[in-house]
Amino acid sequence: MKLVTGAVGLAVILLLAPHRSYGQGGRGAVPGNQALPTGKPGAPFDPTGYWVSLITNNWRFRMVPPAKGDYAGIPISMAGKKLADAWDPAQDEATGNQCKHYGAASIMYQPTRLHIAWQDDTTLRVDTDAGTQTRIFQFGKAPATAGKRTWQGNSVAVWEARRANNPEPPARYLKVTTNNMLPGYLRKNGVPYGENAVLTEYYDLFQERDGTTMMFVTAVVQDPVYLEQRYIVISHFRKEPDGSKWDPTPCSARW
Amino acid sequence: MRTLCAAAIAIVVAGYVGLAQVNNEVPEGVELTGNWVSRNGTEFNTNLHRAYDFLGMPLNDAAKAWALSHSEEQASEPERQCAFYTSTYFPFGFAPLPMWKETELRTGSTVAWVVGGWLDVVPMVIWMDGRPHPSTYAPHSSAGFTTGAWENDVLTTYTTHMIANLLHRRGPHSDLATMTLRFSRHADILSLTGRIEDPVYLAEPLYVSREWQLSSVPVNRAAVPCTVAYEGVREGVVPHYLPGQNPFVEETTRLWGIPLEAVQGGAETMYPEYRKKIKDKYVRPEKCVANASELAAGGCGGPGRLAPVIN
Questions:
Q1: Can you say how many angstroms the Cα of residue A222 is from the centroid of all Cα atoms in its chain?
Q2: Neighbour count for residue A147 (Cβ, 10 Å)
Q3: Average pLDDT for B141-151
Q4: Do A228 and B304 lie within an 8 Å CB cutoff?
Q5: pLDDT of the residue at A29
Q6: Which of A57, A113, A239, B303 is most buried, judged by most C-beta within 10 A?
């Protein structure tokens, strides 16, 4: 009888014991991003190396400068349209603003190659050969709200969980929030974003069945002045074996 | 007594293992249930691309030849009116994307995720219960056969057994085409990305993507029943163009100044360096041109012209 009592006791203990569940995060899982290392030590995937953009959609807006007044696909506001209708690439050249279409809000959607490298444990550096631009992603810092505006602005990065209770190992993507940008163009034909625009990017890395490594960047641009709603696009990048095709080109207001 | 004791222990172990299986065998990932509406930042209808516009699509020569002979009137053939698009249409379509999961009632485990259909697309069932894909020579269908798995909290699906059909922008895909999709959620945004492979018509994999936003407004969850009606094409007739006789081949070049060699697609057109090849051939139109019906459907864009997001 003692054995039976013991067995039943064991049953109660086992059945009431916490199950470590992948699906529910498990009670041992780390909630959210708390206590998880950040920057390079916390990287859930390796974003470094050379990448090439694959332009398989919106080609005529990305590979060539489209016609003036072609705003299809962009939730442009009346204020934005007014500016875009006055687009003048010659004036941009005359005022030294050839890089208006190479700012953070649009550079990743361009036909370009990327070179991504850790500058230090909390700084990820992204170089583009299109327009020869450099973006700096800072981990562990609060977004800057002041300072000199630049084409690439201030970017704060975090490995963000997809849900409050992470599974083990933690499932995370790279989230980058950028502000303090100089006003620029979302599209080469002068569709504007303003200095109050905020760019939020989500970086996902996937391994294909044939071993190809792909990176998809979902970019969300919010601009209370020049956009009626969020502008969202996704860029595709395929990892390259080396930098042999790296081809830096200067900014161009016309091409 | 020993028998009783063994039975008690067996019940305990079985119960514990049973619970463990319920909770552990099928990782549930993140919640995708809901109605997702397309944000349409990516080309979504004929206003953003034209007939015989294969810009950036890695079509091979066989696909280019097929595409040039294809007439859109084929969709009006009585024999084809109810031949719905295949599952490759989802990442290109502008229709809402309702998603839900079917669960096993006793254990609550997920048997399948379902992506709802639309006017001309049948629902896509994503089997999550570990069943294998059918044999190579099993029957094909519009939906094909799709299995799924959670990878790093991203729902990754793999589709085979689709019938030969139209790919994006009226290019072809064969019945050997396969598709990998990834449903990657970022707060209220769903990034749908994927890769389509076809040994018959694609020189390289075609990477696709589309962005969606969670909506609280219910949307249609099933394809509308299809009935055949006369749409201008008689039974037994297959509209097509003989080589060199397609009158629409140069439409994209005429409208947007893009060289014909680029319009016809091919793997090289999707790489950044291709810009150098056409730089001196491209003629930027002075202004955006759209006819009345195109303007009504979004045309050149402009304030209020993007499909509204319903929250």
A1: 14
A2: 9
A3: 95
A4: yes
A5: 36
A6: A57
The pair of three-digit structure tokens given for residue B97, joined into one six-digit string: 């994307």
Find the closest chain B residue to A75 by CA distance. B306
Peptide linkage before A224 cis (omega within 30 of 0): no
pLDDT the model gives residue B310: 46
Alpha helices, H only, chain A: 2-16, 59-62, 78-85, 89-94, 104-107
Mean pLDDT of B2-26: 47
Interface-testing mutation among A64, A83, A87, A230, with chain B (most B C-beta atoms within 10 A): A64
What's the average model confidence in pLDDT over B141-162? 95
Q: How far is B241 from chain A (nearest CA, A)?
A: 26
* Of residues B202, B122, B208, B128, the one with CA closest to residue B162: B122
A18-22 long-range Cβ contacts below 8 angstroms, 24+ apart: A19/B19, A19/B20, A19/B23, A19/B24, A20/A168, A20/B24, A21/B23, A21/B24, A22/A167, A22/A168, A22/B23, A22/B24, A22/B27, A22/B28
Where residue B283 falls among pLDDT bands split at 50, 70, 90? very high
**CA of B228, closest CA in chain A: separation in Å?**
33
Torsion of CA B120, B125, B126, B131, to 10 degrees: -140
Of A15, A53, A232, the CB nearest to B16: A15
Q: Is A144 exposed, middle or buried (0-12, 13-18, 19+ CB in 10 A)?
A: middle
Tokens of B6: 């063994």
- Any idea which residue has 């694959």 for tokens? A54
What are the beta bridge partners of residue B102? Answer: B112
Q: Is the dihedral of CA B83, A56, B282, B260 positive or negative?
A: negative
Report the range of poorest mean pLDDT among A46-50, A92-96, B151-155: B151-155
B269 chain-A contacts, CB cut-off 8 A: 55, 59, 63
In B, minimum Cα distance to A217 occurs at B191
Asked if A68 lies within 8 A of B206 by C-beta distance, the reply is: no
